[in-house]
Design brief:
By secondary structure, the protein is an alpha/beta fold. It contains 9 helices and 7 strands; from the N terminus they run E-E-H-H-E-E-H-E-H-E-E-H-H-H-H-H. Helix 5 crosses helix 7 and helix 6 packs across helix 7.
Amino acid sequence: MQVAGELSAQPDEAAGANHARGARGATTATSTLPAPERACLELAWQAMLAGAAPIGAVVADPVGAIISTGRNAVDGAADPPLLAGSLLAHAEVNALIWLRHGSRRHAGYRLVTSLEPCPMCAGAFRMAQLGALTSLGADPFNGATWLLTSEQYLGRRPVEITGPRADEFGRLAAGLVVAYQLRRRPGGPVLAAYEELRPDLLAAGESLVGAGLFDLAARQLPWAQVADSLLAAV
C-alpha cells in the first residue's frame, strides 16, 4: 500500500527498511529524531494532504526498525487497505492492525504516534500487547495515556511510556492537529481544551496557520519540502 505516494505501509520488515531509506533520503530539521518519530510526522502530513486529521503512527521492533505504519483516515481520501471513512480509522489502529496474533510476541515492540492516543487507541495498544508507547504531541482533550497506568484492566500489565514531548517537535505534532481543528471546528471542544489547558500548543497551531500551512497542503508538497518551515514556525 502507498500512503500519499511516499511511505510504504506493508506489514513486514521490508517496509521498515523502506521507511529508513526514505527518512535518510532528504535532510530536514527533523532528522535528529529517531526514524519512527520522523515517520510519524511524515504520515501526519500525508493525512493532512488527504483531508484527514494530521496524525500518524508506526510500530517499531526492539531495535527501532519500522514494521508497520498507519495514518488517520476518518475523513478524506481513502488508501486501501487502510481502515478509512470510519470513526474508528485512527492512525494507531491502522498501524496496529498489521500485527498478526500468534505470529510473534510483541512485548518488545513500541507504538510511536504523533499525538497522545485517545481512549480507543490506548485500548487497542493494550490489546495488541505491545510493551512501549511513545507520543510526540500532547492532547488535552482526548489524550488517554493515563489509562495505561490505572489500576483497571488497561494498567495491569506494565508498559514503558515516553512523551508527550515538550520541545519544538512536540509543538509541531500537536500544532498540526490544532491547525486542522482551527479550520474544521473553530468553536469546538477540542480547541477549547487546548485554550484552557495548553495555550502554548494552541499558539503553535495558530503560528502554523499564519506560516501558510494550508497553502502548502493545497499544493500537495511532500514532507521533505515543508518540514523545516513548519518546524521553524512553532
